[in-house]
């Protein structure tokens, strides 16, 4: 779904944004039949980064299967509120981040969930959807905030052309297993005051949450490299909208302690200003990570 090569469809960027708003509104209000009208009859839906006990992981084929899975969720959970926090559109494809609160109908427990979607249109309906989600931890009080809605509407100039933005993200993601991540490259391309968020809860992933400053990010990268060896990284989808980039990656990791290998799906949202990365939000398949660590639990 690289926006530079995919053929355009018949929807404008503005119309795609309007439809995304309508899709999320229908989902939150339980109007599932109206929601799936925006999806093709043979739509393929991929559920990634799914915690056990809330949503069912897997791949669903066809509008009927997609609708049936959402109805199962509706039986147990009620959507209370939600908001779109980011939308990127390029050449008929889109990436979306939104945050919702769900209440379990049986226990009354409320779950806040951060979600990311990558959507590919064919004609005027969605032909393929990749979903990532996780539970965030408590809000980081006193920390610098991520970009606001106003900044999303009127972003600063990235200071780089599209090709250079994509090249830098690729360069940061790909490194030889024997060498490990290039710390010098991180200092070169990241802003000293970068705001970085690994979506999730520290009870499951120790480095989850919001972090400020390039040195904090470097410490996390080094810590991950101590536990995991990266064997391969494949970039699947790339969208660039002004100074913002959204991408899907599949990374093959080996846990150095257990020796277990796994394919981990990641979704990353990156923002550039004046040639530097000033914001990074990352979703990870935390179920696979916990399985590799030998400590998968039901939450």
Structure, described:
The chain is 27% helix and 41% strand. By secondary structure, the chain is of the alpha+beta class. The strands form two sheets. A six-stranded mixed sheet has the order 2-1-6-5-4-3, with helices on one face. A six-stranded mixed sheet has the order 8-7-12-11-10-9. The chain is globular, with a radius of gyration of 19 Å. It starts with 12 loop residues before the first helix and ends in a 6-residue tail after the last helix.
Task: Offer a few descriptive terms.
single chain; 299 residues
Q: What is this structure's SSE topology?
A:
Elements: H1 13-28, H2 32-36, E1 39-48, E2 58-61, H3 63-76, E3 77-90, E4 93-104, E5 110-122, E6 125-134, H4 149-153, H5 162-173, H6 183-189, E7 190-198, E8 209-212, H7 214-227, E9 228-241, E10 244-255, E11 261-273, E12 276-284, H8 286-293
Parallel strand pairs: 1-6, 7-12
Antiparallel strand pairs: 1-2, 3-4, 4-5, 5-6, 7-8, 9-10, 10-11, 11-12
């Amino acid at each position: 779904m690289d926006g530079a090569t995919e053929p355009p469809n018949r929807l404008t960027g503005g119309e795609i944004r309007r439809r995304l708003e309508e899709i999320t509104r229908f989902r939150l209000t339980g109007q599932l039949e109206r929601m799936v009208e925006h999806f093709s009859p043979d739509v393929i839906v991929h559920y990634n980064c799914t915690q056990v006990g809330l949503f069912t992981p897997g791949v669903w084929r066809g509008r009927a299967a997609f609708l049936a899975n959402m109805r199962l969720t509706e039986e147990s959970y009620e959507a209370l509120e939600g908001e779109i926090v980011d939308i990127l559109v390029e050449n008929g494809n889109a990436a979306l981040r939104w945050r919702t609160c769900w209440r379990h109908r049986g226990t009354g427990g409320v779950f806040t969930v951060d979600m990311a979607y990558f959507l590919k249109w064919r004609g005027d309906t969605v032909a393929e959807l990749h979903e990532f989600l996780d539970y965030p931890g408590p809000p980081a009080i006193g920390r610098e905030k991520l970009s606001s809605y106003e900044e999303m509407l009127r972003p600063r100039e990235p200071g780089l052309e599209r090709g250079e933005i994509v090249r830098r993200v690729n360069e940061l993601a790909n490194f030889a297993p024997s060498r490990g991540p290039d710390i010098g490259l991180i200092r070169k391309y990241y802003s000293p005051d970068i705001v970085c968020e690994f979506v999730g809860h520290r009870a499951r992933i120790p480095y989850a949450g919001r972090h400020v400053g390039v040195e904090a990010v470097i410490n996390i990268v080094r810590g991950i490299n101590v536990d995991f060896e990266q064997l391969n990284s494949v970039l699947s989808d790339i969208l660039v909208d002004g100074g913002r980039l959204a991408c899907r990656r599949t990374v093959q990791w080996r846990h150095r302690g257990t020796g277990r290998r796994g394919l981990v799906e990641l979704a990353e949202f990156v923002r550039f200003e004046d040639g530097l990365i000033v914001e990074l939000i990352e979703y990870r398949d935390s179920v696979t990570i916990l399985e590799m660590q030998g400590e998968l639990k039901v939450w």
